[in-house]
Amino acid sequence: MGRIGNAQTYSEVQRPQKTLETLRRVWFYLRRQKISLILTAIMVVGTVCLDLIGPFLLGRVIDGHIITRNLSGLSQILMLMLLVYLSSGALYLLQSYVMAGAAQRTMRDLRADLFSRLLHMPLNFFDRRSHGELMSRLTSDVENINQVLSNCVAQIVSGSLSTVGVAIAMFYINPRLAAVSVVTISLLTILCNRWLAAKTRVRFRAQQAALGRLYGFMEETIGVQKVVKAYGQEKAFTTQFDVVNEDFRHAGIRAQSYSGLTGPMMNTIHNTAYAIVAGVGGYMAVFGMTTVGVIAMFISYTRQFGRPMNEIAILYNMLQSAMAGAERVFEIIDETPEVDAHHVDLVQKIQGDVLFDCVSFSYQKNVPVLKEVTLHARPGQTIALIGPTGAGKTTIVNLLTRFYETDSGSIQIDGRDIRDIPKVELRQQLGIVLQDTFLFSGTVKENIRYGRLDAADEEIVEAARLSNADTFIHLLPNGYDTLLTERGSNLSHGQRQMLAIARAILADPAILILDEATSSVDTRTERHIQEAMHRLMEGRTSFVIAHRLSTIRGADKILVINHGKVEERGTHAELLAKKGFYWKMSAGHQEESPKQERVLLENDSEMCVLENEL
To answer: How far apart are the C-alpha atoms of 186 and 48, rounded to whole Å?
Structure first.
């Protein structure tokens, strides 16, 4: 809900970019469809030529047969006219089909590049944008470009050729009437389009931006339905949606109001031109300067001259919408992806010696999250990170995985700066189990295999057994072939965690990261998860973020993180003996009863201790 307050106003929407540059980049994708474009061009030329023949034959019919009452040969000319118009229609349908295929293939390539760029963007890129807004660029903006390529490109080329051909034909037949028709329509059309183009482009861009915010809010709302219902916030979210929806409505009205002016204005221009041609032509016919057939031919040609210009003017507005969409798409493609400063492949499986050397980091400039953090984990050691919310615990593991880059200091694995290790190679050596496990739509087996895609079925079953997931999997309707819903919502939280651990076991990482892996589960489920975690952690360097003493008590080293700094470090016993920050969080030096489990819980800025009777 917080994003609504940051919604862009019309004045804040970025102004149009360079049109020619955007067109050049769209053409870069479209030109790959060479055969389709050549076929379309041939059919467009054929359609234009056939359309030019029609009015000429009409003039021949009027002057050579109707005026002279000569019926000889009339049926042949009429049949020829019918054949011309049918052939023109057939070519038009065929060119539309071929161009639609070319447009779809072009959008496939553009959408693939856009999706690929999104996959390779750093996490701070997604921190700045809502998912719905990105979905809008992947769907709505790309579809706007597709509509123009499918429906407009051939029409614009055909209309342009038709306009030139008709103008040449009219000047050849009667230069005076041609001058009246061409000058009137061209001048008024150019003035109209120049005025509209300056108004529509920025408004279409504002409309697309508003649509992105609407998508973002709807996606966010759908994703937090439990919270909405639990707190009875349906009315509040409806009110917020009305605000975003109304913003999109206003943006749409501003864009469509100017776009809708094109048709009426062009019709007025063309009707004016018809009246002028008819008046001037009638005057010339009275004084023997032309014939009735030529006047009829010119009215038909004037319609053909004006119709493409009218269509081009309307399509030009569609082009403005597509250009706005293309600019938004290319903005993403032009973003700087994740890059490796060096490309040094791992020569062997890493041992797991991890060193943070005076590491500082901030998500936002001048707002430090970590301040000169130093820690050393030897191969096979378990390092526990505890501290209040926002202290920087998760940030430490985010930097280890290179989801973000350090501001200063260095992180080394086996003595090598992780910036010298390709990210893909690095992350293949890391196993991550998060508090909120994400499971994909698919079978249980497919979700576990995500840890290592070439794993055999036997290896998947063994990983599930080691994670204590095998028992509940066999109770599912179809066992390992049971289909899971999105995010695994048809499983309990504990079951999802066990599948995540099975996935990590299958990946066989050298370094393990467990971020709140046992939170939000009951005591019995926690015991099963901890058994699985201990098997997974055996022989591996492990970083554990947790708030239950049962999870961190046996760690080789516990680091207390507070305000971005390492407040204390040592074993459980050493930290209790210091009677410092950790001792206070642990409720002093009281010994825990065998029938009690001390649980550390976060409470915004401090930790509190609850004694839970088992």
So the answer is: 19
CB contact at 8 A, 422 and 344: yes
Entry pTM: 0.66
Residue 568: count of CB within 10 angstroms of its CB: 18
Note the pLDDT of residue 594: 39
SS3 139: helix
Distance CA 324, CA 17 (A): 9
pLDDT in tens, 341-387: 655 555 567 888 999 999 999 988 888 999 999 999 999 999 999 88
Question: Which two three-digit tokens encode residue 214?
Answer: 């609407």
Q: How far is CA 384 from CA 57, 158, 379, 561, in A?
A: 90, 70, 15, 10
Distance separating alpha carbons of residues 236 and 158, to the nearest angstrom: 53
Q: Cα(254)–Cα(10) distance, rounded to whole angstroms?
A: 10
Q: What is the pLDDT of residue 357?
A: 94
316-335 pLDDT tens trace:
767 777 888 888 889 888 88
CA distances from 610 to 162, 526, 579, 607 (A): 82, 17, 19, 10
- Which residues does 584 contact at the CB level (< 8 Å), separation at least 6? none
Integer Rg of the chain from CA? 35
User: What is the DSSP annotation of 220-261?
Assistant: HHHHTHHHHHHTT-HHHHHHHHHHHHHHHHHHHHHHHHHHTT
> To 10 degrees, what angle do helices 142-151 and 292-333 make?
150
Q: Is 562 within 8 Å of 581 (Cβ atoms)? A: yes
Whether 263 and 269 have beta carbons less than 8 Å apart is answered as no
Q: Are strands 408-413 and 416-417 parallel, antiparallel or unpaired?
A: antiparallel
What confidence score (pLDDT) does residue 198 get? 61
CA–CA separation, 596 and 614 (whole Å): 6
CA 170 to CA 178: how far, in whole Å? 5
Let me know: does 492 contact 447? Beta carbons within 8 Å. no
Question: Domain 340-380+387-426+556-614 is classified in which CATH homologous superfamily?
Answer: P-loop containing nucleotide triphosphate hydrolases (3.40.50.300)
Q: Could you tell me the two tokens for 146?
A: 């597709």
Q: Is the dihedral of CA 156, 159, 165, 171 positive or negative?
A: negative
What is the pLDDT, as a whole number, of residue 422? 84
Asked whether the beta carbons of 332 and 212 are under 8 A apart, the reply is no
Query: 19-333, superfamily in CATH?
Result: ABC transporter type 1, transmembrane domain (1.20.1560.10)
**C-alpha distances in Å from residue 349, one per residue of 22, 68, 380, 544, 572:** 46, 97, 14, 22, 31
| Domain definitions of the chain by residue range | 19-333, 340-380+387-426+556-614
Low-confidence ranges of the chain (pLDDT < 50): 1-16, 588-614
Decide the pairing of beta strands 483-484 and 442-443. Answer: antiparallel
Rounded CA gap, 408 and 218, in Å? 39
**Amino acid at the residue 311:** E
CB of 407 closer than 8 Å to CB of 363: no
Q: What is the spatial distance between Cα 612 and Cα 381, in angstroms, rounded to a whole number?
A: 29
